[in-house]
Every structure is written in structure tokens, then in C-alpha cells.
Model the fold of this input.
Amino acid sequence: MNAYLEKVLKETREKNASQPEFCQTIEEVLTSLEPVIERHPEYEKVDLLGRMVEPERIFSFRVAWEDDNGNWHTNRGYRCQFNGAIGPYKGGLRFRGNVTEGMIKFLGFEQTFKNSLTGLPIGGGKGGSDFDPAGKSDAEIMRFCQAYMSTLYKYIGPDVDVPAGDIGVGAREIGFLYGAYRHLKSVFENGVLTGKGLSYGGSLIRPEATGYGAIYYLQEVLAHENDTIVGKRIGVSGYGNVSWGIIKKAVELGAVCCYISGSDGYVHDPEGINTDEKIEYLLEMREKHTGVKAYADKYGCEFYPGEKIWGVKDVDIFMPAATQNEVDMEEAKQIVESGVKYYIEVSNMPTTNEAIAYLKENGVIVAPSKAVNAGGVAVSALEMSQNSERLSWTAEEVDQKLHGIMKNIHKISVEAAEEYGLGYDLIAGANIAGFQKVADAMMAQGVF
Ligand code: NDP
Done:
């Protein structure tokens, strides 16, 4: 391995030994940058990689809030402003009990590359809290969001850092967060957050964007293989916002989504989640954190408690869309055994590095999440443009732009991999294409 790359990897592992998810993403990305680093010795002179793996700023803060019974709770909030070389920091907030600093850092690093791939002027950031919204009332969620924003508002702004939703943060939470920001700052600066409701500056298609974008990307992969989405059977993990968008668009284009999962197990609907009523019920399940068993109970399907979908044999495409590290070696072996040709990552880093290598070695086409799920942040950036220009584009206009962006992400990834003689390697291609723009901007701006 290139000596400079090896040095940065070693130092990153040492410095971040207690943050395995962060080390995992750094390893995955830097390894695929090797041919680029070889071609550009000037990067080492200014320690470009060493600077790139260190967030520009990361901080945690106390969030104290009162529950409905008058008891006080204290959670930890985070914001990571990872890289602002190509635009204001941009990335979601995750509210879930398992959130740690290492998780926020890995997500912020991934976000930097993803945002670059969109071709839009947005830097990388991420934030969240170890607060778990499951089982909380609307009033408790509102009080938590207000407490969270009472610190965060000092460090964000439409040209500074623009948070959005992620796991546990949807339109309801963004509404409470924006209300608190407006109250604290006494300005109508709605470009400070994306994923807003339509009545105060949200963009049409934003709720669907990540899922729609994933399907548009999938269509490009299928076209590359002279294949089509019509009639394909898809297994999706998760039943949240992203899974909902995937299913909505896949069904519209003639595919059948017959598996969904949650923390409680998975559900098999042999006919597919194929009616508006079934698809919209997913949103209700997400808001109420019901688990997927609720779907099985309502529609009379089989529920497999505690199990994951990766061993099922009757699908053509897997789309992990729940959380990180859903697929390790054991699951990768099941996927290969099932004979599935397409593995399209959608959730952030759903696959361990070892599992990715195994899938690729065994002929599965793997598409990386930082490219596949970039449609969400792309439409968030379009929401920022509409806010700053006081415009409201139609659903068709936004959808058309999203489609164009996803096609382009696939195209530039393919071209980047080909430029370095790597063939149809979507992972390396996305890493290289995402890296190049950020690297150029950092080189131009001098060392700091
Ligand atoms: P939601 O909160 O809407 O849904 C998350 C889903 O994942 C739920 O079905 C949840 O099931 C499941 N899940 C979450 N954590 C775990 C866990 N630890 N183990 C098992 N299941 C889990 O989130 P989104 O749909 O918005 O996000 C899904 C993924 O997509 C995340 O990785 C996110 O970072 C990524 N992403 C999202 C974007 C967006 O626009 N929303 C944009 C880009 C990426 P249960 O509630 O039963 O635990």
C-alpha cells in the first residue's frame, strides 16, 4: 500500500480506537483512493488526507428536558461540522438511544463525500442525540427539540450549517426544531433547516427524495446490465422514511416489494406492498414506532420475529435501508447463497468492509450508500435554493432535477473508476469522484 496512505490509516486507527464505525468508514474510503494518491504526490506535501479525516469541528452539549410526569432528563446532543470546503455544512440529525460521538463522526465523513457527489455546493456535517423518541408523547418530543435547539441555534445558519432529518427525526421534529430556532433568533431564516413542512418553506418531493433517488440509481445500474426494474422482486430492510420512498417509486415503476423489516423482525407480503393504503400505512407505523409486526397483523402476512431478511430466496434485489452494519459476513454468505445479483445499499454504511469484499468476490453488484442515498440531501439543497430565492418548484420540477442528479452520480462514479482502470466498481468510483471535488477545493484554499 502507498506509504502515505498507510501512515494516515494507522494514525486514524490509533487516534480513534474507541470509535470503530468511524475507523471502518475511513478504511473503506481511503483504501479505494490509493490510485489517486499515487497519481497526486502533492497531496502528501500538505497532508491533505490527514486533514480530511479530522472534522473541522465537533462538539457535544447538554440537553435537559421535562417529561409529561414532571421528571427531568438529561441527554447528550452532538453536532459535527466535518468539512466546509465546498459549501455550508449540511447533514441530518439522528435521535436514537444508540447515538455516540463515533457514529456522528462516521456519518459526517460519509456525508462530505455524498454531498460532493450531488454536484451541489454543500459541505458535510451530521448531528443528533442519544434521545430515543420511541414511546414519547408529542409534547415530550417538542420539549426535547426546544431544549436541543436552545444550544444548537448559536452554531448553525443558512450559510453556516444546515441540519435536516435522519433516523428518529422527521417532519414533526423538524417543525419543532425550526419553531424553536425562529423563536430564539427572532428571524424567519427557514434556509437553516431542510425537510420542513410545505407551509413554511419545505420542498415538494423531499420526504420521498432518498427513496426515489435510490430507485433512480438502481435503474442506472440495471440499464448498465441491460436489465430493467419491471417485475423485479425487492427485499427492503427497515420500514422508515427511506423504505417508504423506495417502495412508492419501485411499485410505480412495476417492481414488487415483498419484504420489510424492523428491530422486531421481518414481514413477508407475497403480493407486495402494492396499494396506496399499504404504502401510506408505513408512515403511520414509523410515526408510532410500532415495529413491522403491525403490518403483518393488519394485512394477514407472515411475521418472522427477531429475524433479518437476508436469507430469503425469492428476491432479485436487496436494498438495506434501516441502519449501519446490517450485513456482516454471515448475512453476506446468505445473500450470495440466495443468488441475488444486485445489492443496493441505501442506509448509511449498512455493510461491513469484510462483507462488501465477500459480496464483490462472489459476483454480486454492490452499489454504495453514499451514492445511492444522495438524493435526499440533493433535494435538501434544492430546498435551500428555493428558500433563498423565495421560490416553490412543482413536484415535477423537483423530481426531474432529482432524477438528473442521480443519473449523473452514477455516470461520474463509473467514469472515475474507469479513469483509474478499476472497471465497473461503483464503490471506488463514488469515493474517487466525491473525493476529487473536495480535494480540489481544499488545495485551492490553502492549509488550515
Ligand atoms: P427512520 O427513522 O424513518 O427509519 C429507520 C428504520 O430503521 C426503522 O424501520 C427502524 O426500525 C430501523 N432501525 C433503525 N435503527 C435500527 C437498528 N439499530 N436496528 C434495526 N433496525 C433499525 O430513518 P430513515 O428511513 O430516515 O433512515 C434510514 C437510513 O437511511 C439511515 O441509515 C439514514 O442515515 C439513511 N438516510 C436517510 C436519509 C433521509 O432522507 N431520511 C437520507 C440519507 C440517508 P425500528 O423503529 O423498528 O427500530
